[in-house]
Design a protein that fits this description.
The chain is α+β, with helices and mostly antiparallel strands. The protein has a single domain, classed as Glycosyltransferase (Alpha/alpha barrel), CATH 1.50.10.10. It has helices at 18-24, 28-45, 69-81, 84-100, 125-138, 143-146, 223-233; strands spanning 10-12, 51-53, 58-61, 102-103, 106-107, 110-112, 117-118, 151-153, 159-161. It is found in: Endoplasmic reticulum.
Length: 239
């Protein structure tokens, strides 16, 4: 930290949650860029290895236990930007999970992202977080999405109302006008958008696809800059 020297050259799968933290802090431009790095890794392996070495451009730790952090950041970025790009990313995630990890009894942890071998286990956070954030990403009419600024997800995906009575030592005003009780919403606020999933989501191609309709629906990050992140990971927009 003092001299800028590099201690290691790897990215941890848990770090994918940082883009979501940046969204909550209002640092949206940086959140979009942070997310793009992990999106490039997902494109390369159709999942995110537990540890990826950006210097050697290969995984250092090869397993993928169905972690939710990248999906959580994708969901929070969609809430913040309303860009259908993030729903399209969510569809890729669902397709990858169904293709590589789904079995009759559930979804299996990936032992090795290189050959997609599996383990006979499914972590509890897959249901409590991974599936939950994917569901909310597409269920725009869900009440949790109507007043998301008044709710906070815990690290395990539980929701808590942001109210003053839950703070032992209030340190200042919250993001919104706080009350000691939270009335569960029954109607959608007027400023939430059209309240429906983007109808173009199914057919929305990725940057680099032929006939790219993102030209009429601007990406949250330019194809040029997204391509730079893909190059760092040693993959391409066309993969």
């Amino acid at each position: 930290m003092r001299d800028g020297s590099i201690i290691n050259t790897w990215l941890d799968a848990l770090q994918a949650s940082f883009a979501g933290v940046q969204v909550l802090d209002g640092d949206l431009d940086e959140a979009i860029c942070s997310h793009a790095v992990y999106y490039a890794i997902w494109q390369k392996y159709e999942m995110i290895p537990e540890r990826f070495n950006w210097h050697s451009k290969t995984p250092d730790v090869n397993f993928y236990p169905l972690r939710p952090e990248f999906i959580e950041s994708t969901y929070l970025l969609f809430l913040a930007t309303k860009s259908p790009f993030y729903q399209r990313v969510g569809m890729q995630i669902v397709d990858s999970l169904n293709l590589h990890t789904r079995f009759g009894c559930g979804f299996a942890t990936v032992h090795n992202v290189m050959d997609k071998t599996l383990e006979d286990r499914m972590e509890s956070f897959f249901l409590s977080e991974t599936c939950k954030y994917l569901y909310l990403l597409f269920d725009v009419n869900n009440p949790l999405n109507w007043h998301y600024e008044k709710l906070l997800f815990s690290t395990e995906g539980h929701t808590f109302p942001i109210v003053r009575s839950l703070r032992r030592h209030p340190i200042g005003p919250a993001y919104h006008d706080e009350t000691d009780t939270l009335t569960w919403p029954t109607t959608k606020p007027q400023n939430f958008g059209n309240g429906t999933i983007y109808q173009s989501c199914n057919s929305l191609p990725l940057p680099g696809d032929e006939g790219n309709t993102f030209l009429t629906k601007p990406l949250p990050i330019s194809p040029f800059h997204l391509g730079q992140y893909f190059k760092v990971i040693d993959t391409s927009l066309d993969d």
